[in-house]
Amino acid sequence: MSNSLYSTARQHNQTTIVPSTDIEATVEMADLVPAIEAAFAAYENDTAQMPPKSYIDLPQHNGDFRSMPAYLETDDWEASGIKWVNVHPDNPDEFDLPTVMGTLVYTDPESGFPLAVMDATTLTMKRTGAAAAVATDHLAIEGASSLGIIGAGVQSYTQLEAISQVRPIESVVVSDLDDDRVQRFIDTFGDEFDVRAGTISEAAQCDVLSTVTPVEDPIVTLEDLGEHTHVNAMGADAEGKQELHTDVIREATLVIDDFEQTTHSGEINVPWSTGDIDESDIDAELGEIVVGSASGREDLSGNTVFDSTGLAIQDIAAARIVYESLGDDSGHRLEMV
User: Fold this and answer.
1) CATH of the domain at 55
2) Is residue 126 annotated as a catalytic residue, yes or no?
């Protein structure tokens, strides 16, 4: 299933170095969202391999590292690689660095040749937004026009960019403890959407809600939500983190990205560990809904929750979009000897 780009890279023994600026310039959400959906389908159809995410915890630095390898095959393409990513919440204040950074090695499945080494920080933000969009497309009401976002950090931007690809978003309510971050968000999107600052409850009343915070004490209650709010719970990515009160998780239609990851480090990890929820509370994995073996939203009323931990298959699918968009004369190239 090799393509011409693979052949060119092998022939010249070159590895492309891809900085974040190239990823920002080449990745379009209109291309990325269907690629991420295809990755979920491949995972459900057993044409993907994704060993569990491994962690190196560094409490002395208030951070951790994660390694995320994957291979996937669809009807039209195959791809493989590995991402090395960190989460250090103190970075913005202490080092003027992003909380999350990553590097991805994108490889040719046929030969194992490293086709590209790319910055995965921007890639991670974009594929996370795209995953929320896939879930929103299947779980939000059809005419959803309002989006609430809790947490106005960098991930909030790709949430809006991606979700507006699948629903006719008109108004956005953004909530954050940092007024400056809220204002930057408003300044960025104010010409395209009706954007305003609001409380957590005001954001949660929207048709779609994305939570992108690092909190460990839940901040969204069942009473906060609207009658048909779909929630993308994106912030919990390590043990002990939880953005939604347990009754939200228990009462909603609950869709997860991966059983092992969500029970270990996703939104449900805390109530799962305490026994407040169990397997009967999980309605489906997103891949099951994508391939049609489980149902998405069927009623106009009721809340839905997507628990996203971030999967390596998403990173590799996104890396393929980047690599194929660059062309032979883009980026920096290293000669392999």
Assistant:
1) 3.30.1780.10
2) no
- Give the torsion sign (CA, 211, 213, 214, 218): negative
Considering the domain architecture, whether residues 183 and 198 belong to the same structural domain is answered as: yes
What is the domain range of residue 61? Answer: 15-123+313-334
Judge whether 159 is annotated as a binding position.
no
- Per-residue pLDDT reduced to its tens digit, 94-148: 999 988 899 999 999 999 999 999 999 999 999 999 999 999 999 999 999 999 9
The one catalytic residue among 53, 66, 83, 138: 83
Q: Are the CB atoms for 201 and 224 separated by under 8 Å?
A: yes
Q: Report the C-alpha gap between 59 and 51 in whole angstroms.
A: 24
Residue 134 forms part of a structural domain: no
176 is in an annotated binding site: no
Among candidates 88, 212, 89, 229, which has minimal Cα distance to 151?
212
pLDDT grade for 332, boundaries at 50, 70 and 90: low
Identify the sign of the CA torsion 114, 120, 125, 126.
negative
53 marked as binding residue: no
Residue 155 marked ligand-binding:
yes
- Based on the fold, state whether residues 272 and 152 are members of the same structural domain: yes
> Do 233 and 318 lie in a common domain?
no
Q: Cβ of 206: how many Cβ atoms within 10 Å?
A: 24
Same-domain status, 245 and 281: yes
- Beta strand segments in the chain, E: 14-18, 48-49, 54-58, 63-73, 78-87, 100-107, 114-119, 146-150, 171-175, 194-197, 208-211, 230-233, 253-256, 284-285, 304-307, 332-335
Bridge partners, 164 (sequence order): none
The answer to whether residues 114 and 167 belong to one domain is no
Distance CA 100, CA 158 (A): 14
Angle subtended by helix axes 312-326 and 29-44, to nearest 10: 140
158 and 292 assigned to the same domain: yes
Let me know: does 145 contact 178? Beta carbons within 8 Å: no
